[in-house]
Design goal:
With 427 residues, this protein is α/β, with parallel strands linked by helices. The protein is 30% helix and 22% strand. α4 crosses α6, α6 runs parallel beside α7 and α7 packs parallel to α9. The structure holds (4S)-2,6-dioxohexahydropyrimidine-4-carboxylic acid (DOR) and zinc ion.
């Protein structure tokens, strides 16, 4: 039996302890006050913070179709480096993940590579065309837990109603990218003073909020488990609060970039800052922060969206929307919540691991750090200053909006079922 000791760790940033892992079974074997000295492998973790492996409900790994920008393998490397042990990759690939065999291929590639559990998201409509529903039941039977047309909104209300009903019947999550496309035609930036100043076509808050309101009412009346992708406005927060107060079964995510960045970044017209939904104003970011703190928004999801430089280093209007997220998210959450004193590491574990695992019903993720539990773990050094650089990313793409920004917390190790999938040190 192979044993790995993680000595001198602080689970959830609390008291120092040592953890012994049974590597073959991939579970935590024992936890003790003293370091384990007789393990097959021993790592002195230097009092660093240990969290359950992070879970990201929303990434784009671009395989199949755009393997020049990311693959399941490079995306898994980026995920492991970011501290993630499970990710859900969206269906807007080419071909679109709209049939069971395509979903199964994504899962199997991820498992063969072995760095991260890569769960496929199935599309709600065939080819993401918003015209007819996919075989939600067949995909659900092949293991798909979440359905989304992300990148696009299911605008047609009748189609959305049917999707909600099917999703309910098969007990799967329906994740909506809320955007009234009619209201965002040609829009590239948040509709406000900044877009007006820069001469950019504006994307109003109501384009998101009107869909959130409609979907909340539909979920009230037709049931099921509804999840809102990348909430971005103050009004969306109010609507979510209203829906939850009514007992409507909605959950929501916010991205690290909508918490940290605002449309002020757009003044250089740098395509790196183009994203859907767009970066909003300070009051939106503040409302989203509060919503995450009080549970109105449930989780952080990165919306990791790799693009090649040919699609990002162009005029703002022509840049493809999307930014990398997997390798910077923990550092941003640390900056916004832990460093600022707004929250502790228990909170980080909740919004980046436990809640997403719970929403997706992953039995082996987001579990307590306790004996007998799966050894899906992330080790974080909260005092290791580093500078984000696109060229240093494990991701195949380099479109990070945080180029040159210094962060203080860094993932130094990740374990998936007891096997190390990332180490900051080559030791
Ligand atoms: O900015 C975005 N990029 N938002 C989306 O909804 C889709 C994503 C992508 O696929 O690049
Ligand atoms: Zn989206």
């Amino acid at each position: 039996m192979t044993k790995l000791a993680l000595n001198n760790v602080r689970p959830y940033g609390e008291d120092v302890t040592s953890i012994l892992i049974d590597v073959e079974d991939g579970v935590i074997d024992s936890i003790g006050d003293n370091p384990f000295d007789d393990a097959d492998e021993t790592i002195d973790c230097g009092g660093n913070v240990l969290l359950p492996g992070l879970v990201d409900m929303h990434v784009h790994l671009r395989e199949p179709g755009r393997e020049d920008t990311e693959t399941i393998a490079t995306g898994s490397d980026a995920a492991a480096k970011g501290g993630f042990t499970a990710v859900f990759t969206m269906a807007n690939t080419n071909p679109v993940i709209d049939q069971p065999f395509l979903a199964e291929a994504v899962w199997e590639k991820g498992q063969t590579y072995g760095k991260c559990d890569v769960y496929p998201v199935g599309s709600i409509t065939k080819g993401l065309e918003g015209k007819s529903l996919t075989e939600i039941g067949l995909m659900a039977r092949s293991g798909v837990r979440m359905f989304s047309d992300d990148g696009k909104c299911v605008n047609d209300p009748q189609l959305m109603r049917r999707a909600i009903e099917y999703a309910k019947a098969h007990d799967v999550i329906l994740a909506q990218h809320a955007e009234d496309h009619r209201m965002t035609e040609g829009a590239v930036a948040h509709e406000g003073e900044q877009a007006a100043r820069l001469g950019l076509r504006g994307w109003p808050r109501v384009a998101e909020e009107s869909i959130v309101a409609r979907d909340a009412i539909m979920t009230r009346d037709y049931g099921g488990r509804y999840h809102l992708c990348h909430a971005s406005t103050e009004g969306t927060v109010e609507l979510l609060r209203f829906a939850k107060a009514q007992g409507i079964n909605v959950t929501a995510e916010v991205t690290p970039h909508h918490l940290l960045l605002t449309d002020e970044m757009l003044s250089t017209y740098d395509g790196l800052f183009r994203v859907n939904p767009p970066l909003r104003e300070k009051r939106d970011a503040e409302a989203l922060k509060q919503a995450l703190l009080d549970g109105t928004v449930d989780v952080i999801a990165t919306d990791h969206a790799p693009h090649g430089s040919e699609d990002k280093c162009v005029e703002f209007e022509h840049a493809k929307p999307g930014m990398l997220g997997l390798e910077t998210s923990m550092a941003i959450v640390h900056r916004v919540f832990v460093e600022s004193g707004l929250a502790d590491w228990r909170f980080v574990a909740k919004v980046m691991s436990e809640r997403p695992a719970e929403i997706l019903r992953l039995e082996d993720q987001g579990r307590p750090i306790a004996v007998g539990e799966p050894a899906n773990l992330t080790l974080i050094d909260p005092q290791d200053t580093w500078t984000a650089k696109g060229k240093d990313m494990a991701s195949k793409a380099s479109n990070t909006p945080y180029e040159g920004i210094e962060f203080n917390a860094r993932v130094v190790g990740t374990w998936l079922r007891g096997t190390q999938t990332y180490s900051a040190k080559k030791a």
